[in-house]
Amino acid sequence: MKKTKAAPERLGARERELVDTIFALGNRASAEEIRARLIDPPGDSSVRVMLARLEKKGYVKHQQEGLRYVYSATASPAVAKRNALQRYLQTFFGGSRQEMLTALINESPWTDDEFDALKAEIDRVRKERTKQS
Questions:
Q1: Spatial separation of the C-alpha atoms in residues 55 and 9, rounded to whole Å
Q2: What is the pLDDT of residues 43-68, one digit of tens each?
Q3: Which of 46, 80, 81, 91 is most open to solvent, judged by the fewest CB atoms within 10 Å of its CB?
């Protein structure tokens, strides 16, 4: 039986790390695989308890494969990416997309091809928006 909530519970830092790790592993991973990727990993039973808690909160689900559980996030990768970007944007740039993009452009060594591809994407989005107006 699936539990529904009015608003999802907030995740702690370690819980967020587990969910992020599941995505990094292709949204399909065992507790052992997840634990192996964690920074300063807790014990095996602690990881399993946290995964059970995440499942109860509705963030992950599991399928049994033989003797092990394989976990995946309940949100799609697109939704998770959007949420992660929003958290990052709010945390480090006070919600300013322009500041975030400026920092990314200034902090990274971009090739001319990468700049051209970025400009082409900006132009494509502008053109699409003017068609919709």
A1: 12
A2: 999 999 999 999 999 999 999 999 99
A3: 91
